[in-house]
């Protein structure tokens, strides 16, 4: 079971494994928005977290917390107390897991900063039409993203077929 | 009527400015965007106007032959997506006022994370309800760059 709790950055230079996961949430705070470049931070408490390849670089986003990311490709990876005790959780970016479905948030926090259009994000029109030009561009796509599983060597020899690059 | 938009990374080492109208604002569920942003969805916006880097420059990872993704190498904030020589799209969360940029289309709908199925029923949780959380909030000092341009900024100065 724990073997599936793996993940890492987009390029694969930093990889992690967690023994088990705790609560998952969406954090709306302005600091998570900016750190992720997104509308919210998707975090899950990871216990027994081991960096199995490389290690994150850290930015101390406050006097108490630091945020880990890959220095080579930028993927946001973690959020934790600077003086974290060994048994404390490391909050991990859910999208960085090889299978992000291992964590589904049930809670949302820091609603004061919630963006006004958050509730409407699930009902945006979906693009289903792919133009011939876009299809042609995609056909030639060679992704440099690390595959969604651990690999013996890095950079990996094979390539993953992505849709957005 | 062209508007002026500014933004940058969390630490403030990289700042940008765009003057122009929004051309395309989207959320993308694709696996590459998920991993690049560590998130369920990636919100990107492109403009009819040139993106100026007003402080520092993003570091770019070539996520595929055609695409370069930019980020701040000091704090990690994902900032940009550049296809070939096109003007970059920018992550909406990195803008000083992300609420001014409304996404109007969803991409890679087929790869939606399961959280979208119960998005409307996420339970609001208060922060600061335990003694430990209250202790933390009492002394917390943010080192995030403020949500406006600054003449001088040293990451770690805080507001």
Keywords:
heterodimer; A: 165 residues; mainly beta; Metal Binding Protein, Guanine Nucleotide Exchange Factor, Chain A; 7-stranded mixed sheet; 3-stranded antiparallel sheet; 2 helices; 10 strands; 9% helix; globular; B: 159 residues; 9-stranded mixed sheet
Q: Provide the low-confidence segments of chain B as ranges.
A: none
Largest sheet of chain A: 7 strands, mixed
Of all chain pairs, the largest interface belongs to: A-B, 74 and 80 residues
Gyration radius from CA atoms of chain B, angstroms:
17 Å
Structural class of chain B: mainly beta
What radius of gyration of chain A results from the CA coordinates? 17 Å
Structural description of this entry:
- The complex is a heterodimer of chains A (165) and B (159).
- Chain A has one domain (2-118, 130-139): Metal Binding Protein, Guanine Nucleotide Exchange Factor, Chain A (Beta Complex).
- Chain A contains 2 helices and 10 strands; from the N terminus they run βββαβββββββα.
- By secondary structure, chain A is mostly beta strands.
- In chain A, the strands form 2 sheets. Chain A has a 7-stranded mixed β-sheet.
- By secondary structure, chain B is mainly beta.
- In chain B, 10% of the residues lie in helices and 35% in strands.
- In chain B, β5 (59-62) and β6 form a beta hairpin.
- Chain B is globular and about 50 Å long.
- Chain B has a domain at 3-109: Metal Binding Protein, Guanine Nucleotide Exchange Factor, Chain A (Beta Complex), CATH 2.170.150.
- The interface between A and B is large, with 74 and 80 residues.
- β10 (107-109) of chain A pairs parallel with β10 (123-125) of chain B.
């Amino acid at each position: 079971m724990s073997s599936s709790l793996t993940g890492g950055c987009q390029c694969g230079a930093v990889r992690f494994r967690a023994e088990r996961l705790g609560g998952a949430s969406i954090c709306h705070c302005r600091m998570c928005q900016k750190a992720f470049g997104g509308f919210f931070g998707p975090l899950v408490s990871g216990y027994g977290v081991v960096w199995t390849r490389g290690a994150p670089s850290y930015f101390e986003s406050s006097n108490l917390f630091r945020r880990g990311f890959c220095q080579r490709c930028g993927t946001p990876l973690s959020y934790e107390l600077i003086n974290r005790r060994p048994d404390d959780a490391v909050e991990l970016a859910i999208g960085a897991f090889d299978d992000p479905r291992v964590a589904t948030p049930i809670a949302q926090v820091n609603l004061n900063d919630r963006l006004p259009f958050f509730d409407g994000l699930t009902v945006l029109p979906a693009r289903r039409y792919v133009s011939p030009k876009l299809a042609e561009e995609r056909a030639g796509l060679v992704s440099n993203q690390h595959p969604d599983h651990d690999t013996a060597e890095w950079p990996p020899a094979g390539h993953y077929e992505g849709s957005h690059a | 009527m062209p508007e002026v938009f500014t933004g940058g990374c969390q630490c403030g080492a990289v700042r940008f400015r765009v003057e122009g109208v929004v051309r395309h604002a989207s959320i993308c569920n694709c696996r590459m965007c998920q991993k690049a942003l560590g998130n369920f969805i990636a919100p990107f916006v492109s403009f009819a106007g040139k993106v100026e880097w007003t402080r520092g420059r993003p570091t770019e990872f070539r996520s595929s032959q055609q695409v370069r993704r930019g980020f701040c190498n000091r704090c990690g904030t994902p900032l940009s997506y550049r296809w070939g020589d096109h003007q970059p799209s920018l992550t909406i969360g990195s803008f000083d006022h992300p609420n001014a940029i409304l996404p109007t289309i969803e991409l890679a709908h087929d790869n939606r994370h399961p959280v979208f199925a119960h998005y409307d029923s996420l339970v609001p949780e208060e922060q600061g309800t335990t003694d430990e959380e209250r202790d933390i909030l009492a002394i917390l000092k943010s080192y995030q760059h403020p949500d406006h341009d600054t003449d001088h900024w040293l990451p770690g100065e805080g507001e």
